[in-house]
């Protein structure tokens, strides 16, 4: 294993760990038990990578290398022993989520490129790895997925990190130090966007049915798939 491959593996495991922490912190905030924390940690830590590897028609890293199952377990035990210190965990959920997003935008893209994917596919696989685990975590925890909220940027920093990885690989500069810099830039982009409340353009007035049918903020629209009255 070359130095660059070793660094990418270390960053991928680190991304699994910090993403798992975000899942376990969310479970603690939602008053789930330790089993729920482990489930959310696993979903956040390895969910995006499993989806990526299935789409790339390769054995998922989490199954081929059982070491990937260790970070969610360690994260669960760590947060469990911290206990009451996780009560005000919102800011730390965002920080660890952004760390995982930055790391996975790099490693997911690098893995896709190594599998022979063209740049456009590698870009999507990197973003999927960076956002997929968080999406699964939020859906299972009954949270509005961060990727769907227009109040801050999430997918764009992931695409930014993935794009930088592709660019570095194309010019022959993708190495250990460059990988760390790319992950740090993607993380910084996400946190700066959150701090300054950067957001994507809001939908036009007639974009959503909610603008016409759900004037009240607390009113929920009926299910699209409900049988007609």
Automatic annotation (TrEMBL):
Ranges where the Glycine transporter domain occurs: 10-82, 95-168
Keyword field: Cell membrane, Membrane, Transmembrane, Transmembrane helix
InterPro entries, sorted: Gly_transporter (IPR005115)
Main location: membrane
Localization per record: Cell membrane
Residues making up the signal peptide according to the UniProt record: none
Membrane topology category: Multi-pass membrane protein
Residues spanning the membrane: 6-27, 34-51, 63-82, 91-113, 119-140, 152-168, 174-194
Superkingdom of source: Bacteria
Family affiliation: Belongs to the UPF0126 family.
PANTHER family: INNER MEMBRANE PROTEIN (PTHR30506), UPF0126 INNER MEMBRANE PROTEIN YADS-RELATED (PTHR30506:SF3)
Protein name: Trimeric intracellular cation channel family protein
